[in-house]
Design a protein that fits this description.
2 domains; Jelly Rolls; about 475 residues; single chain; 16-stranded mixed β-sheet; mainly beta; 13-stranded parallel β-sheet
Amino acid sequence: MSTKINEMRLRKWLVALALTVCVFGLSQRAGAVCDLWSESSDVLSPIDGNDCVDANNFTATDDVEAAKFHTTGCTVSGTKSVAFGNGTTASGDYSAALGYLVKANKSGGFAIGSGLIEDGSATVTPEADGVGSVFLGGMVRSWQSNLIEGPFKAGNDGAISLGGDFCYDGSLEATGKGSITLGGSIFDQGDVKATGDGSLVAGFCEGPAIEATGTGSVAIGSNYVSWGNFQATNEGSVAIGCIKYPSSDNAIESSGKGSVVLGYAGAQDLKATGDGSVAIGNGVIADAANAFAIGKGFTNDEADSFAVGFGDMDFQVSEPNIVTVYGDLEVTGTTTPSSITEPNEREVFFQAGRTNTYGDFEVRGITGGGTYCLTGHVPYDFDSLTSLKAIFFVASGAAQSNRHFHLESDYGTDGEVYTNHEESDDTIYVDLTGYTDKIYGLDISSVVDAGDLAAGDLIGIEVNHQNLGGTLRYLGMLMQYKGNW
C-alpha cells in the first residue's frame, strides 16, 4: 500500500515541475518579444531606437517605423537614415545610400550608384560628402586591372555630381559649395571637376580634365585628346567647346575674370586670358582686358578692341572707334554717308611762324601794306577740299569795309617743280568792320584747283595786303577736307 502511495506522489511532483517549466519559459519568451517591439493601431515599432530591421528580403504590408533602416551588408549610423544594396553606408542624419559601395556621409546626403569594378580587379567608393549633397552615378569599370583612380563624389555642401560610365584613371567631382558636375564616360586620366563655389561642369572627357575652378565658373564640352586641358579658372569665367584629336597639346581656357571662350581647339589653343575678354571660333586668343577675338588662328592682344580674322587678323576696331583693315576691303552693298567707306569731315591747322605774341597767342604781325606766305602739307587721307582759310586777328586800323587782298599759290608733291600748280586772284574784297581784336578767317581757296590738289602735296599761299590801313596778326592756315577713313 505504501509503495503505491509513493508512486502516486512522485507522478504528481513530476507533472507540477513540467507545468512550472512550461509556464515560466512561455512567460519569459513573451516578455522578450514585448520588450523589443510594440504594436499600436497595426503599426509594429521598435521600443529601443537602436533596433532595426535587418533582412535580405523584407516585405511591409503596412507602415514601418525605424530610426535607421538598412539591408544586410549595409551600414547605417545617421538618424532616420536609409541604406539599401550591398556595402552602402548612410552615416549622415536623414541621409540615404542606395547601390553598391556608395556612401552618404553628411546630413541630408543622397548617394546612388555602384563602386563595382567591372572586371572585379578593385573597388571604389562613390560619395555624397557634403551637407545636402547628391551623387547619382552608374557603373564604375576598368579596361585594365587596378587602374581606377577616382574620386567620384559630391564633396561639399549642396554639391551635385551626376555621372554615367566611369572608366580607369579618372575622377568625377563637385567639390565647391553648390557646385554641379554632369559627366559622361571618363577614360584615360580624364577628370571632370567643379571645384569653384557655384561652378558648373558638364561634358565628356577622354583627356586630362574638364574643370571649372573659379567661383561661379562654367565649363561645358568634350575633351578628346591625350594632353589638352579644358578649364574655366577665374571668377565668372565661361568655357564652352571641344578639344579634338589629333592635336595633343592644346587647350581651351578662360582664365580672365568674366572671360568667355566658345568654340574649337584643333591645331591651336582657344583662350580668353584677359579680364572681360571673349574668344570665339577655332584656335583664337583674346590676350588683353576686354579684347574680343572672333575667327580662326590669330591673337588679339590689344585691350578694349574687337578683332575678326581667319588665319591672321583681318579687321580690328579699337578705342576711340578706330577701324583698321589688314588687307583689301570689299563692299558689296549700298553705303551711306555714315558708313566707313564714305569720306569723313576732317581738318588740319598749319601754324604761322612766330614774331611776337598777342595775348597768350603766338602770332606773325603783318602791316597793312605787307605780304605773308602760309605753308602747309595736304594730309595723306585727303579726298577733297572743303575750305581753306587764313586765320588772323584784326587791328583797329584794318577793321574797315572793302579791304582788298591779292592771293597767289604754288603747290605740288615730291619730284615736281614748285610752280607745277600755281594760281592767283586779285578780286578778294572783305568787310572787316567790327572785327577789332577779333579772329577772322579769310577764304583763300580760290587759288587752289580742287582737281589738282592731292594727298601729300605741299602748298604755299601768299597773302598780299593792298593798303589795309592796319596790322593783321596771323595765327596760321586752316584746311578743312573730307578724308578717307
